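Design request, tokens follow.
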């Protein structure tokens, strides 16, 4: 499939809108059929998709199934079982003074939705939002990431073979094609990526007053003080951080702990890395690669002059960067020369371990920065866990485990502040891509509406005064 430019992109959007305007996407039978078709696409072509993910990211096939296709299939199953119930109008009670009348909320699709996916989980983060968009009855334009070109080409080939080829459009390409897409009129835009591009998306959407969901990232901190579970916590941190070579928006971005625990935690995470990926992770089939040379160079630049406690080996030719632990000094927020490892989203396999005197100091440090997408607390103290939950704001919190809060269909996933706006997964996806339309009917019997209509007699004024809680009769 060739990239669409200019008129071809506008034509793709027009085709999706004509299909939506025809009413074809509204019946729940169509929606369920499309969800079933997407499930068949993933199951039938699993090997092909996994090969593409290996080609672009050297993602292990088992990891690909767990973090890409299985996540989407679980969301499809969860949505399919509940879709008819979600799509039914819901009765709403009215005050007695308005009766006899009825009110209901009628879920309706928004129209044509644009979904712009990132490169780090190029299958999951393209199709998971689409589950909600299709489930809500919308037509969809998909924009896969150009930074994973093999995956993009495979999905662009498969989608029209399984799904409604008019209602679901795929547009490939890079910045020029995305810019052209953003000039079109959509009824909702769903973007997953970084804050810089998120601002561009939000600005473009404002031209058409288009609502936007932004799934961004940022610095996701972790706190550790659970000595009794040191090795278990270390293994969980290592798994959460080095999955997909650290290229996960909800990965622990840095770990704070007391100064006396920096050494033991470093040694425990080092042991966990060796257990998972061997003495030399470059030879492990389970460890991924950085997406491209530009990101590889960015990451290795962070290590210049850094206190590397473990790892740090890099091979630009194969985009390999070892799982790396870095010791940083006690930070002073906003200090000149503060390490970019504490000021920029790392999005790679580098884990800073930062000494912090107390949990309260860590909370103050978190609150002095943008609200994170995820916060992790590894503590045996119930009071410490409660303080982090109550005194910080984040998209989600993991207690004693990373990542899982982002993978539960019954929970909303999304950021707050600089880490994003809006949420999805399960019913929250359906609601994101729906408008709950109030419909009120006033029966003709016992027509008391005359009390609200001119002329306003003395009796009507007294009734209005009582209903408003006014003691004196208005003149």
């Amino acid at each position: 499939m060739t990239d669409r430019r200019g008129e071809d992109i506008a034509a793709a959007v027009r085709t999706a809108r004509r299909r939506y305007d025809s009413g074809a996407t509204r019946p729940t039978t169509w929606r369920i059929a499309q969800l079933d078709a997407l499930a068949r696409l993933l199951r039938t072509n699993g090997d092909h998709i996994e090969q593409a993910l290996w080609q672009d990211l050297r993602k292990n096939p088992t990891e690909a199934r767990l973090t890409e296709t299985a996540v989407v299939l679980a969301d499809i199953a969860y949505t399919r079982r509940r879709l008819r119930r979600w799509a039914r109008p819901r009765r709403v009670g009215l005050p007695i003074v308005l009766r006899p009348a009825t009110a209901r909320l009628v879920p309706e699709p928004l129209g044509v939705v644009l979904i712009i996916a990132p490169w780090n989980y190029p299958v999951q983060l393209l199709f998971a939002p689409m589950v909600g968009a299709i489930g809500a009855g919308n037509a969809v334009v998909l924009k896969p990431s150009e930074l994973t070109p093999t995956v993009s080409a495979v999905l662009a080939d498969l989608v029209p073979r399984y799904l409604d080829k008019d209602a679901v459009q795929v547009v490939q390409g890079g910045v020029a094609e995305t810019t052209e897409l953003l000039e079109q009129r959509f009824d909702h835009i769903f973007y997953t990526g970084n804050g810089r591009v998120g601002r561009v998306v939000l600005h473009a959407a404002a031209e058409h007053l288009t609502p936007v969901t932004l799934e961004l990232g940022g610095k996701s901190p972790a706190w550790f003080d659970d000595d009794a579970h040191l090795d278990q916590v270390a293994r969980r941190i290592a798994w959460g951080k080095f999955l997909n070579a650290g290229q996960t928006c909800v990965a622990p971005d840095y770990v704070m702990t007391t100064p006396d625990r920096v050494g033991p935690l470093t040694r425990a995470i080092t042991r966990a890395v060796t257990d998972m990926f061997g003495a030399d992770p470059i030879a492990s089939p389970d460890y991924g690669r950085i997406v491209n040379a530009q990101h590889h160079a960015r990451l290795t630049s962070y290590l210049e002059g850094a206190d590397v406690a473990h790892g740090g080996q890099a091979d630009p030719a194969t985009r390999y960067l070892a799982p790396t632990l870095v010791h940083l000094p006690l930070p002073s927020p906003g200090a000149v020369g503060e390490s970019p490892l504490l000021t920029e989203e790392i999005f790679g396999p580098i884990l800073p371990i930062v000494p912090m005197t107390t949990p309260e100091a860590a909370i103050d440090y978190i609150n002095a920065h943008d609200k994170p997408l995820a916060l992790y607390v590894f503590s045996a103290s119930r009071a410490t866990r409660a303080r982090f939950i109550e005194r910080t704001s984040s998209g989600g919190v993991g207690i004693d485990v990373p990542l899982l809060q982002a993978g539960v269909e019954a929970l909303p996933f999304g950021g707050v502040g600089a880490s994003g706006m809006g949420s999805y997964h399960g019913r929250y996806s359906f609601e994101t891509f729906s408008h709950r339309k109030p419909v009120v009917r006033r029966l003709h019997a016992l027509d008391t509406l005359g009390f609200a209509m001119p002329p306003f007699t003395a009796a009507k004024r007294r009734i209005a005064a009582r209903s408003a809680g006014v003691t004196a009769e208005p003149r």
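Comment from the thread starter after seeing the answer: thanks! The first strand starts at residue 90 and ends at 92.
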